[in-house]
Amino acid sequence: MEHLQGRVAVVTGAASGLGLAMSNRFAQAGMKVVLADIEAGPLDAAVRELRAGGHDAIGVVTDVADPGAVDRLAAAAFDAHGRVHVLCNNAGVVKRARVWELTLDDWRWVLGVDFWSVVYGVRAFVPRMLEQAEGGHVVNTSSMAGLLPMPNLGAYAAAKSAVLALSLSLQTEFDQLESPLGVSVLCPGFIATGITSSGRNRPAGLADEAPPPNVPRTTAGAVATLTAADVAEQVVEAIISHRFWILTHPAYQTVIRQHAAGIGTAARPAPAPIW
Q1: Torsion over CA of 206, 143, 227 and 170, rounded to 10 degrees?
Q2: Active-site residue, 252 included
Q3: 20 to 30 Å CA-CA from 260: which of 31, 99, 144, 145?
Q4: Options 109, 116, 156, 174, the catalytic residue
Q5: If you average pLDDT over every residue of the chain, what do you get?
């Protein structure tokens, strides 16, 4: 994946936030982009804007928590282009509540979108990407919450930790096969996106929702120091350089090392600072 020109990218959660920024950046690099999102209106608008700029883009309305829908997304992408070189399992939602107060519907919703969608994406796309023998890359969106303690985000953190573990296994398995496919795990710090309003897309069948805790949001008062476009640039650089870790904010790296050093000791986990 030393160049992206003329290759095909599939991005979930592509109608807003990091997904939209990645889609735009891939298009600027000359890629053909398949955008997937559960929101038809914003998805259509994103596709229209890319096409107006002369880019090759199609949209597929997709509920990533539905394995059949992800299979249909894969079929649409391969039917349109015959191959896929970059898969970004990016769609995400968040529910803020204390772990013991989260309802089972909260858990099912968050894990379904944030973790199971990655499983479905890997199952639907990777076998065909391996058969292509052309190289390629899988980008799985985790979070700093998958690496560091974040109070009141237990379901989100559990899902993102699982995405990280899955990504580590996936890369080692590609290496065992001596496959040219690569993996990157994207662990963003605080980025101003619309994920905090993701409840707008919560299914009616998973409506039993815990009330939020009576404490400020983890990011209350924080100022985003990177934009979604900045992160999309880091993703492109990681794909081209075959780099696994995408830790968006350098300031977090010291905290991550300190947290890792406490594993197996008497140290108690401390909430991560927000930059």
Answers
A1: -100
A2: no
A3: 99
A4: 156
A5: 94
